[in-house]
Specification:
This protein has 185 residues and is mostly helical. Helices cover 45% and strands 0% of the residues. The longest helix has 12 residues.
Length: 185
């Protein structure tokens, strides 16, 4: 194999194996922890990554691997939050291109020190999809298997009155010049 051509088709068995969709969880973890950055980048693009593997790929030394993780739609909110603090532009651009990134992260990146990141974030905020985008951690196998996502029924909030015998009067916080309260009869 020629140096620098590890990404070419047929150049590496690991690259071919990483492209397969029918990998077991053990194989995914083994390939994601390998030495080949191209393989780790391919693994970071997968939607069926275990949470621990996502964390290790989000902390990878290769910018391309972190950028692939930032662009992964199955990445959890905490992973995307961590990657939003990355100092490399390809990671932040991939993060801003990810439709599942929460609006708060995009708003924070709109005040980034680099002009390109700010412009990209502002374009993303102008997009109508950003308002409805929400990160959903159901793609993580451990969380999905655990069944932690039951449908939550929100109960209406009842106002609490501390003393039922006291009349409710509006509170006046400061005198206003020219204002006279209505005479109480």
């Amino acid at each position: 194999m020629a140096r620098g051509f590890s990404y070419a088709d047929g150049a590496s068995e690991e690259v071919e194996m990483a492209r397969r969709a029918d990998l077991s969880r053990a194989q995914v973890q083994a390939l994601a922890g390998g030495k080949n950055a191209v393989v780790r980048e391919l693994m970071a693009q997968r939607g069926d990554l275990p949470l621990g593997t996502m964390v290790s790929l989000a902390h990878d030394r290769s910018v391309e691997v972190r950028a692939a993780m930032a662009g992964n739609r199955a990445a959890t909110a905490s992973i995307l939050e961590h990657l939003s603090g990355d100092r490399h532009q390809p990671v932040l651009h991939a993060l801003l291109d990810n439709p599942t990134v929460e609006r708060a992260i995009i708003e924070r990146l709109a005040f980034h020190k680099r002009d390109e990141i700010r412009a990209h974030a502002v374009r993303r905020l102008d997009d109508a999809e950003a308002a409805s985008a929400r990160t959903d951690d159901r793609g993580v196998p451990e969380l999905r298997e655990r069944g932690t996502y039951a449908d939550v029924v929100e109960l209406p909030v009842q106002p609490v009155r501390l003393h039922d015998d006291l009349p409710v009067r509006p509170t006046r916080t400061a005198p206003v010049r020219g204002f006279r309260p209505a005479e109480e009869a």
